[in-house]
């Protein structure tokens, strides 16, 4: 090309001569030039999806197939323990590679990890399982062949509806354990395990031991061939539906007793399980309060999970039988922790355990169990009886309105329900549902809405230590008012319900299926607490820890929304939540100070009595300077009055606050002025706008936006309102500002019973990264006529 450009500048005669030589010269140049070698492309990151086989017997060397992607050009096999050695084998393809693995005889049983790498990256890790039992891998050809035990059998339910049947020989009197692992080792299989003798008689079946994979134990009644059948309960199948069934006479520990031990003391803990030596136990030397793992010999005993005991400073007791009647009740002091078991003798009726204690009139005691939380299968129920064994009445609930469930039944969790005649009901009223007492948190917000009940963590809160139940469609529902026991109630044509000191599942939904109640003695004297299993079950592993102690009302609080990113001229929602202890119900005040320059927050805030959370907004001025990395000056203090004393604590603050650019949407909540239609740009640090409302009154307010790139529909909520004040008339679609509009009139309504309070509230957009307005100070004030009527 360079020659041609030169020729274009030459005269015609020279041009004709040069052209004779140009073509051969250019061809020679191309012929003699060397082609450039393209730069090597780095290999892609290898990924592993599957390992086959998954089980290895220690002391063995085994060839393992790895399936994945980018497996050509591997340079290293990485193993998670030095007692594992191995190497990559030749013949890898893009999707398959093979390794040879050798396992030391001294490696402990359990899961281990491997990965591979190439010159560019390391793959994800896969687990394989090391055992001292022979590993048998089931195939289509050996599934029907009788197998020797002990062994671990690996199978896969690849086809929908597939059943695997494993035949094995057992001798008369031999105690065998069948331990199946599926979900616990990462499988999708949800299996049923059944065992049959040589005559096809069913010996046992298990769908899951303590909520996990199946586990069965049996003693062979005769020598012969037995069959274990593995079935997928949902009849699904795939390569991911694999399992491991370990069969043998090995020792397996499943539980221990007691489940708590005293602090700074040496104790003996009995072991429970299959094929254990007589009086199998382990000694533990406990230190301070907490939790400690049992020091078991893992070579001698197999376990599905590590076993732990609680180290408890309370005086420790161990149940002594018989204690099945009030007259036999085991005496305990207060405070105390009792280790007991619901363990009925063969042929006997369901076991109950009774403990006698002394209580002073008006003294509040906490009575609770710790069982399911410690891995016990018992579902406890506790009841307080008097010295003669009669239930102690707590309250008399007088029905004042009746209704019934409509639209759909509800389970024991949901906090939303629909009833007939809801217009006759009000917030904070108690609702009685066949033994369960709830409380109305929010009224229906339209024709396609129901009540929201007070909840804890999304599960409805049960009051007076009642327990959650499922309820059928059309079941009776009553609004009730609590009265003292023995009250003479005026006749209103509706029933009254006595409520006793009894609890199945903790009404505050913190203890799962464990039980808890607060007992206030109606008079000084002897009382009996009865512990039972709510289903009538029992057994050696049905252990529980019963605690009886004085109530100590208290709380902890936590700020959520830490390390926030705040857009200039806008805000971000945060919340402070409370964990109330021993039924502390008082108000909790939240004070925030020391924010970086240019930043403000709605403060003070109040977590109302009986509530668990309050929401606020953290705002940045348009010209706010960038805050420093460390926000050490900001403090969040919570204050409450507990038993007549003021308690103030510092909790976590906002952490690192990041200032971002202006948002795509600015939000404002303003008092309503009909002629003021322009967006009011509030400045952080100036006094807040104010709105005043009277109990039973509805007032308008402005909801405004300024668009800065977000031109679509915007939906809103108004947060921080005191309980009983709502955004009214929101319609089926809630509070919306349509595309092309920038303002909307909304209405705030206060129930008649709302007290005089001052609260910060704010508007929050559900789009454009959830921007919030500056806080508005809402005053609830009685009208002059209301005040005079009082």
Description:
The chain has 790 residues and is mainly β. It has eight domains: 2-28, no CATH class; 47-131, Immunoglobulins (Immunoglobulin-like); 135-250, Sandwich (Jelly Rolls), CATH 2.60.120.380; 253-312, Immunoglobulin-like (Sandwich), CATH 2.60.40; 316-391 and 519-550, Jelly Rolls (Sandwich), CATH 2.60.120; 393-500; 554-660, Immunoglobulin-like; 665-786, Immunoglobulins (Immunoglobulin-like, Sandwich). The strands form 15 sheets. It has a seven-stranded antiparallel beta sheet with strand order 32-35-34-33-38-31-39, with no helix packed on it. It has a five-stranded mixed beta sheet with strand order 9-10-17-12-15, with no helix packed on it. Strand 51 and strand 52 form a beta hairpin. Mean pLDDT is 90; it is low at 1-31.
Helix fraction, binned, reads under 10%
Which secondary-structure class do the elements indicate? mainly beta
CATH architecture of the largest domain: Sandwich
CATH class of the largest domain, anyone? Mainly Beta
Summarize the structure.
With 790 residues, this protein is mostly beta strands. It is built from three helices and 62 strands. It has a seven-stranded antiparallel β-sheet with strand order 32-35-34-33-38-31-39, with no helix packed on it. It has a five-stranded mixed β-sheet with strand order 9-10-17-12-15, with no helix packed on it.
